[in-house]
Write a structure and sequence with these properties.
Layout lengths: L15 E5 L6 H18 L3 E4 L18 H15 L3 E4 L6 H5 L4 E4 L7 H9 L4 E4 L9 H10 L5 E5 L2 E2 L5 E2 L4 H6 L5 E4 L5 E2 L8 E2 L4 H11 L3 E7 L13 E2 H26 L1
Parallel strand pairs: 1-2, 1-12, 2-3, 3-4, 4-5, 5-6, 6-9, 9-12, 12-13
Antiparallel strand pairs: 7-8, 10-11
Length: 277
Amino acid sequence: MPVNKEAFRGGGRPFFLISGPCVIESREHCLRMAESLAALSAKLEIPLIFKASYDKANRTSINSFRGPGPEEGLEILAEVRREIGVPVLSDIHEPAQARAAAEVLDVIQIPAFLCRQTDLVQAAAASGRPLNIKKGQFLAPWDMENVLEKALEGGADLVFLTERGASFGYNNLVVDFKSLPIMRRWGQPVVFDATHSVQLPGGKGSSTGGQAEFIPFLARAAIAVGVDGIFCEVHDQPEKALSDGPNALHLEKAEAVFRQLKRLDELVKSSSVRNEE
């Protein structure tokens, strides 16, 4: 099920959701999570792109779980796409990975730490797939204009720019919500990453911590600003997740959170239309 680009272009349309577990833990788990989220998005009528990483190349520790790798991971995501019927997203870390990833993925993600890597961004853009580029924790929002230019020059026609917090001292992040309308000025959809924004990077020594209890609050704030999409990692057992469990939304809580976001999104965007008139 390829991405229906019109549903994901933003610009006052209902918000869309990028959601799934941080990493592919197993074929069975990935398919189960995709099925659950697809059913939930259909119930709430929220467009969904299923997200799961096949390789977490930037883990805190050498001993951290990275995922099944590109070959097996892409096979699993192809099965999700075929059997569950949802578009899929994962990230690449090297230019050479773009071609194989584009054969399966509907959206290619550029990790925050790599968003300024020109060759990587342009290789992903040349694949013909839409991109989701995470704003680096070290960048100001206006710096993303240069990143976007690289993607557009590389051939991309749909680029999501995703806010995921900025470094705030050691092992902490803070969100400047002005970044959302600032990045929206360039005519591409802007996404708020509600789960990585509550990370405590390296906060547990050999792994990243998080404050998942704040996910609903930050997500509501982003929707109130008028964001185009919400990125939200979801897990059925966050306490046992193999990556980013401390900052994942529990599957049991997802419906209530997403339903509230939908109601708020409808209110904000209907009010925006009236105000423009």
